[in-house]
Amino acid sequence: MNIVLLGAPGAGKGTQAEKLVDAYDIAHISTGNILRAAVGAQTPLGLEAQSYMDAGELVPDSVVIGLVKERLEEEDTDKGFILDGFPRTATQAVALASELEEMGRGIDCAIAVKVAPEIIVKRLSSRRLCKACGYIGRVSDAACPVCGDKLYQRDDDKPATVKNRLEVYEKSTAPLIDYYRGADLLVEVDGEQSPGVVFEQIQVALSQGSRRKETSCRDESERAVL
Ligand code: AP5
Ligand code: MG
Questions:
Q1: What pLDDT is recorded for position 207?
Q2: Whose CA is closest to atom 54 on ligand 1?
Q3: Domains, the chain, ranges and CATH?
Q4: How, if at all, do strands 151-152 and 109-114 pair?
Q5: Which strands, in side-by-side order, build the sheet including 27-30?
Q6: Is pLDDT above 90 for 226?
Q7: What does the pLDDT average to over 170-191?
């Protein structure tokens, strides 16, 4: 099962991706996590990406496309993958489609998690993360409930940067919802419910595939190349 997760910053892509990985045993490809690890390690990729990320801007397409191509060649993606935060521009979507076509693969489903901007601002100002294990938590967590490590706030979760990230999302990424709708691959879920209920909606869409009219996920057997 190959899934694209779409949604504004803070919509809950990472939260749902973790649940999908556990349930379907597929690879999690988060461009944000890859870039943050590179920034932390101060690799050449990280040095290039840092100023864009700090400003809430998108890292250039050529950089991100290259790193996703490399990641898709890793063996763990053979059993399926979730792309979390990629594609984010039309150029990235087209590059992904052509790369997957070359590999004889395709997208089965694009899930758009929908949340209103005012809820997103609240969520991101209270989000805290664990550097050690990646746990996504909230300011009310005293420490990481998984590994006990300290939680930190992402630099780009400060209010001014969140505002820009939302603007960038509307301009560059939201149009991809129509792109995947046009390819009959789009499923929209209400991301304002609890994480468990959002996940249930996603599971229903994935299990019913294209058999249900109001969802457009494809069975792997009828996978289309975009
Ligand atoms: P990235 O890391 O992808 O960030 P993002 O898209 O802005 O999204 P977030 O990770 O902030 O939110 P999320 O949707 O994962 O929500 P989460 O589950 O954590 O990208 C960061 C930066 O990297 C970009 O700005 C850009 O610079 C660069 N970048 C990355 N990919 C790129 C690309 N393809 N091209 C170019 N540049 C790229 O949840 C948020 C909070 O809400 C948490 O506290 C969580 O506990 C809570 N929550 C989640 N679900 C619910 C729920 N249902 N109810 C209540 N609370 C919830
Ligand atoms: Mg995320």
A1: 86
A2: 194
A3: 2-26+79-116+164-225 (3.40.50.300)
A4: unpaired
A5: 27-30, 81-84, 2-7, 109-114, 186-190
A6: no
A7: 96
